[in-house]
């Protein structure tokens, strides 16, 4: 490992330092759960740039940091790219079935929500006047 590689090593918790409350907190955010679902669906490690999130770059960086510091994923530099992998083995050893259960529940929720019709506007969202084509 070169001196430059050492300087670009990111801190990760050892398995003994990973706590259930930290993992659950990390997985409770929809953006972070989306990242985890994408990583779980991939056989390969994915660069941060692979993920297109509807938030700013700094917020995306924050979400990856929360996932890394909680022990959910591992990040390594490959050149200038930050590569991400799930810490499946560590999480399974510490919390058997947790990651699988969360991913299964997230998939079920996504399916359920996709099957629901779009919500109707509430009274406060309705226009303050009748549409122009209505009969008077």
CA gyration radius, whole angstroms: 20 Å
Q: Helix amount, in percent?
A: 40-55%
The strand order across the widest sheet is 1-3-2
Give the N-to-C terminal Cα separation: 79 Å
Helix count? Answer: 6
Question: Biggest sheet, open or closed, and with what strands and sense?
Answer: 3 strands, antiparallel
* Unreliable spans: 1-5
What is the number of strand segments?
3
- Listing every helix as H and every strand as E from the N terminus to the C terminus, the arrangement reads HHHEHEEHH
Structural class of the helix and strand makeup? mainly alpha
Please specify the SSE layout and strand pairing.
Layout: H1 3-7, H2 20-27, H3 30-41, E1 46-47, H4 57-70, E2 73-78, E3 81-86, H5 88-94, H6 98-115
Antiparallel strand pairs: 1-3, 2-3
Describe the structure.
This protein has 136 residues and is mainly alpha-helical. 47% of the residues lie in helices and 10% in strands. The chain has helices at residues 3-7, 20-27, 30-41, 57-70, 88-94, 98-115, and strands at 46-47, 73-78, 81-86. It has a 3-stranded antiparallel β-sheet. It starts with a helix and ends in a 21-residue tail after the last helix. Residues 1-5 have low confidence and may be disordered.
Keywords, please?
elongated, 10% strand, 136 residues, single chain, mainly alpha, three-stranded antiparallel β-sheet
Question: What's this, in brief?
Answer:
The protein contains 6 helices and 3 strands, in the order αααβαββαα. By secondary structure, it is mainly α. Residues 1-5 have low confidence and may be disordered.
């Amino acid at each position: 490992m070169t001196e430059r590689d050492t300087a670009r090593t990111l801190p990760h918790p050892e398995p003994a330092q990973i706590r259930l409350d930290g993992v659950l907190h990390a997985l409770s955010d929809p953006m972070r759960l989306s990242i985890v679902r994408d990583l779980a669906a991939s056989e390969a490690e994915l660069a941060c740039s692979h993920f297109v999130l509807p938030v700013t770059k700094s917020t995306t960086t924050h979400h990856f940091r929360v996932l890394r510091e909680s022990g959910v994923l591992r990040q390594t530099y490959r050149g200038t790219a930050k590569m991400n992998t799930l810490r499946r083995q560590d999480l399974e050893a510490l919390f058997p079935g947790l990651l699988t259960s969360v991913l299964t529940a997230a998939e079920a929720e996504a399916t359920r929500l996709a099957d629901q019709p779009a919500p109707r506007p509430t009274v406060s969202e309705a226009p303050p006047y009748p549409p122009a084509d209505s009969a008077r």
